Amino acid sequence: MIETDVGDTEPTDGTALSPEVAAEKSLWHYLGLVLSAAVLLLVIALAVLLILVPKATGSIPLTVLTSSMEPGYPPGTLIIVRPVDPNELRLGDVITYQIQSGKPGVITHRIIAINSSAGDRTFVLKGDNNSKADVEEVLAEQVQGRLWYAVPFIGYVNSAVNGANRSWIIPVGAVLLFSYAGYMMASGALAAVKKRRRSAHS
User: Fold this and answer.
1) 145-168: per-residue pLDDT in tens?
2) pTM to 2 decimals?
3) Distance between CA 1 and CA 87 in Å, rounded?
4) 167 is a domain residue
5) Which CATH number does the domain housing residue 82 bear?
6) Quick one: three-class SS letters along 132-148?
7) Does 113 fall in a domain?
8) Looking at the domain assignment, is residue 202 inside a domain?
9) How many domains in the chain?
10) Pairing between strand 143-151 and 78-82?
11) CA–CA dist 138, 100 (Å, integer)
12) Reduced to 3 states, what is the DSSP secondary structure of residue 122?
């Protein structure tokens, strides 16, 4: 009786992968795993920086739309503005203020002068890329917050997923990324098991 092992077989055409080809396939496989893990970590880090941290601290994510704060904060930059006591503001701080008190329109510029009169503080602001200061001084009640940190190029993405879009785009994207990462890890583990079995049989 001739015994055969049907668990792992060579290609049916009688040819076997050369060590070089097998090594190349293995290399691409592991590169795919590393890339998937890197993308997953990047997405998690961005979610923490752009969603969790602002929500936990009451900060406001805003998108830079004009070139007035170049080169430090070009259009498309996402800035996180943290609430601040106006009395703590200093020269050089970048703040976001309402154009008109109580209305939604805001501007983010740098403080170049602070004036005090009868105990009230007002702020003179200017965009880093502007030749002149903003026309009107800013009152304390107009201040929305001080710039905390910024993330380049992400602002337009934040604008795209704001409002109603955010409720489904972020969960769907997260599920797809986690599913892909899980698939890559599972396929890597399966390939490793098959390799050990082939080594044991040989």
Assistant:
1) 999 999 888 877 666 666 555 555
2) 0.65
3) 93
4) no
5) 2.10.109.10
6) CCCCCCEEHHHEEEEEE
7) yes
8) no
9) 1
10) antiparallel
11) 9
12) strand
